[in-house]
Amino acid sequence: MLRLFAFLMMLLASPGVFAQDEGPRGIHATEAVVTDAALVPHARPAIVAGELKTQRFVILHTAKAAGAARALAEQIEGVRDTFGAMLGRDWPGTTEIRLGVGRQEFEALALPGGKPPGWAVALAYPGHQIILLDALSLSDTEGPTTLRHELAHVALGQLAKDWPRWFQEGVAQNLTDERYSVAHYSALFRAVTQERVFHFEDLSDEWPDVPADVEIAYAQSAAFVAFLTGKHGSHAMGLLVDGVRAGEPFEQAFGKAFRTSLLLEEQDWREGLAARYGWLPLTTSSALLWLTASVLCVAAFARRMRQKAARMTELAAEDAAEDAALRLLAAARAAGPLPVDGSEPLSPALPWPEWPGATTPAAPPNPSAPSQPEALEGAPEALESGAGHPEGPDGPDMEDEEPEASSGEYELDGEAPSGRPPKPTLH
């Protein structure tokens, strides 16, 4: 976890995170502003198929863009109201918006001599209060933001002249809520940690050439305008607009409106940058908390999947072992019983012959009786002469035989084991 966090921090702090060969990302890569006031709008382009009017807008559209024009007419007045709430002033006159579908219609709606760049999908003519849009861009996720950005340029162009570049871009981004993006935060984080924050006097007319520096310029302009608006309110912003409209230099109008100098306000803003965009807020922000929780959830899920895979492997091994044992047992049963001592398997069991008197309980050994071999020596003669049988060769008289007690002793006349009646004796 610590390694992942360190890697993310190094990635954010690296100056080469964003490709140096690419231009600005987001809407800054798709919008353009033409400040040449010498362009003279000619008659309505022939490709225009209709128009829609609202209180402060007129929307010219082609036949293909009729649906987009109707949807835009329902929302555009509310967008303009938010501009007046921030700037403290509303720009005069009616703003014209031209809508076409596709590159061919988009270029056909442009002013003569003001052809849009090949990468742009939106173009603003602040001096003529005209905005040119590709209707397809409005259905994109950044389409509404692009429209508001162009509208901000028209608003500032109509309210006053000679705005510093950083102020124009800062106001536009605050009106479109671009300053809340992750790209802006990461750009300011790199600027603060690498001490690459620009002075605003260097961003009045010129803009950096390196794309990574361009992102920093956009981000710090948006952050500084938000700082001024939050500190002084929309009333002071309105006074600044009035002063610049009256022809005062921007810094002079700034001092009258905010009762301080641009340099002092910039220093005050810079002192709080480390607390807002340095390492401390990154380690204590709720965004980091959610990021950490997300990483932990992913790690826990991956660990659970590894444990599950290991358990499945273990169960598969156990099943294979049981199958092998069953096969061995089946083979052993087919081959015959196995001896206990591990010698060669025995042959199949044969039936044991039944011997005479096998079911009669054996008599207890008599110490005075001859051993088994001696008794067997006279067995043939005894069988022929009837010896060994007092009753004769026909066999013993089983009825006269005294039954043997369970203890191995013969019962005596008149005596019986406890609990049993005496057995009568025949004479």
From TrEMBL:
It comes from the Bacteria. Residues 371-390 have a biased composition (Low complexity). Residues 1-19 form the signal peptide. It holds the Pfam family Peptidase_MA_2. Residues 394-414 have a biased composition (Acidic residues). The keyword Metal-binding does not apply. Keywords: Membrane, Signal, Transmembrane, Transmembrane helix. Residues 116-271 form the Peptidase MA-like domain. The chain crosses the membrane at residues 279-302. Residues 340-427 are annotated as: Disordered. The keyword Membrane applies. This is Peptidase MA-like domain-containing protein.
